[in-house]
């Protein structure tokens, strides 16, 4: 299953709840303000960094750019994709769950 | 692949209308079919042709209309959500005694059954909202 998270972990618990329920082998795509969850060196970094062993985590590149965040600020292991990658992830997974 | 999209947030609110639009453009470019775009809750505000953003800003409503025309997209606005928010087509205007309609080209007003059908017919349903 593909999970999309569009809220910053600094404003919402949706990333935390998503990580608590996502099964190993699933994909998580951080979009919109959700990309703040991909940042290294924050109080929320540990929960996502721990999850990357069992779950593939992606961040939407255009949303990183729109917020002025270079890719080298991300937690290692998080892959950056464009909208084409978003479409590929949606098709590669049997379901898409949006955490709004 | 057959994809359906649901938009639950109004234009110029956060980012859902833009993300949904960009996703659909990328999906069409990759050769996928967009079965339907269903606008629900404040998402129905994507369908008013009276929207007039500043000229140097993106025109979210026109962008939907143009995409619909180019790719024969089915843009469906939920009737109950639309009535609450004053999104009206000619039939609804007549039925409710309104002096005007405001539905944008390419959009049509229908019911939740259209969302259920999209969920059944499409291979994936993606939800964009706040």
Explain this structure.
The complex is a heterodimer of chains A (100) and B (130). With 100 residues, chain A is an alpha/beta fold. Chain A is 31% helix and 20% strand. Chain B has 130 residues and is α/β, with parallel strands linked by helices. Helix content of chain B is 37%, strand content 20%. Chain B is built from 5 helices and 5 strands. Chain B has helices at 16-29, 60-71, 79-85, 90-95, 113-121, and strands spanning 2-7, 33-39, 75-78, 107-110, 124-128. Chain B has a 5-stranded parallel β-sheet, with helices on both faces. In chain B, β1, α1 (16-29) and β2 form a beta-alpha-beta unit. In chain B, α1 packs parallel to α2. The A-B interface holds A 4, 6, 31-33, 62-63, 82-84, 86-88, 90-91, 95-96, 98, 100 and B 1, 3, 8, 14-16, 19, 22-23, 25-27, 29-30, 32, 123-130.
Q: How does the SSE layout of this entry go?
A:
The complex is a heterodimer of chains A (100) and B (130).
Chain A: E1 2-5, H1 14-21, E2 27-30, H2 45-51, E3 56-60, H3 61-66, E4 79-81, H4 83-92, E5 96-99
Parallel strand pairs in A: 1-2, 1-5, 2-3, 3-4
Chain B: E1 2-7, H1 16-29, E2 33-39, H2 60-71, E3 75-78, H3 79-85, H4 90-95, E4 107-110, H5 113-121, E5 124-128
Parallel strand pairs in B: 1-2, 1-5, 2-3, 3-4
Helix pairs in contact in B: 1-2
Strand content of chain A: 15-25%
How many beta-strand runs of chain A? Answer: 5
Q: What average pLDDT do the residues of chain A reach?
A: 97
What is the CA-CA span between the terminal residues of chain A? 16 Å
Helix content of chain A: 25-40%
Write the element-wise H/E pattern of chain B from the N-terminal end onward. Answer: EHEHEHHEHE
The protein's oligomeric status is: heterodimer
Percentage beta strand of chain B: 15-25%
Strand order of the largest sheet of chain A: 4-3-2-1-5
Q: Fill in the CATH topology of chain A.
A: Hypothetical Protein Ychn, Chain: A
**Regions with little confidence, pLDDT below 50 for 5+ residues of chain B:** none
CATH architecture of chain A: 3-Layer(aba) Sandwich
Number of domains of chain A: 1
CATH superfamily caption of chain B: DsrEFH-like
Q: How far do the termini of chain B sit from each other? A: 26 Å
Integer-rounded radius of gyration of chain A: 12 Å
Radius of gyration of chain B: 14 Å
